[in-house]
Amino acid sequence: VVGGSVLGEAVEWMASINNLEAENSHYCGGILVSAKWVLTAAHCFNIYKLNDTYLSHTVLLGKARIQDDIIFKHESKLKRIVCHPDFDSSTSENDICLVELTTPAVGIKTPRINADVTIPAFKQEVFYLGYGVQLQGSIDMSDDLRVVNVRTTSYQQCSAVYGTKQITSKHICTYANFKDTCQGDSGSPLMQLGGDHTFVNGVILGLVSYGRGCAIPGFPGVNTRISIYAKWIQEVLVNTQVTLN
Ligand code: 4AZ
C-alpha cells in the first residue's frame, strides 16, 4: 500500500500468495474464508485451472516480520483455483477467485464477509491491508503487513474517471490524498474495523482489483464488491465437487 504504516497486529486470516521461483516472491494478497479456501483476485492468475506453473506457488497466512525473520501461521501449496465463471480479463469485471489449499488451515479464525450490498455508504472510512509496494514503480514488496485508511467514493465520481461500462454496482471505489493500493495488493482486503477496533475481527467489504497507477491525484482505487459474490463463494465452499469454470 502507498501512504500506510506497519500494522502492529497479527491478522492470521490475511494471505500472501507467493511464487517461490521469483526473486520478490509475494505477488498477491488474499483472505482465508474457510480452512481450505482463500479468496483473491482473478487477475492474479494467468489461467484459471491449476497447472504446473502454480506447483511452485505457496499461500502464507498471518505473515509478519520480526526483526529479520519472516514468520507465518500457516503455509500451504495450491490445490485448485476456482475463478468466477464471468471474469472478464479485458474489463476486470468479476475479478474474484477461490484458491483451494493442499494443507487446510485448521484452527485459524476467518473474517466476517459483508453480504449487504448497500454497505458501505459514500465517504465512509475504510482500510486496506496489504503486502504490496509502497511507491508506484517499486519492486520491493513489504514483508510487514501494512494498513492504509481511505474513503469510499461515489459511483458517479469513480465512473467519471474509469467509465460507466467499467465501474458498476459490483465495485467499490476509494480515494484519499497520497493513500492507495499498489502492485502486490491485488486480492487483498478492503475492510471496516471490527466493533472491538481490531482488524482481525473486521468486516471484509472488497478485494483490491485495479486502478490507474498508485495514489495518482484524481484516480480512485477500484475493488471487487464482495457482497455481490457472497452466494457464489458459499456455493464453491459447499459444493467443491462442481467445477465452476
Ligand atoms: C496491482 O498491481 C495494483 N492503485 C493494484 C491496485 C492498484 C494498482 C496496482 C490501484 O496489484
Automatic annotation (TrEMBL):
GO cellular component terms, A-Z: extracellular space
GO terms, biological process: proteolysis
Keyword entries, A-Z: Disulfide bond, Hydrolase, Protease, Secreted, Serine protease
GO molecular function: serine-type endopeptidase activity
All residue ranges annotated as the Peptidase S1 domain in the record: 1-238
Cell division recorded as keyword: no
Subcellular location as annotated: Secreted
Keyword flag Repeat: no
Protein name: Peptidase S1 domain-containing protein
Source organism of this protein record: Sphaeroforma arctica JP610
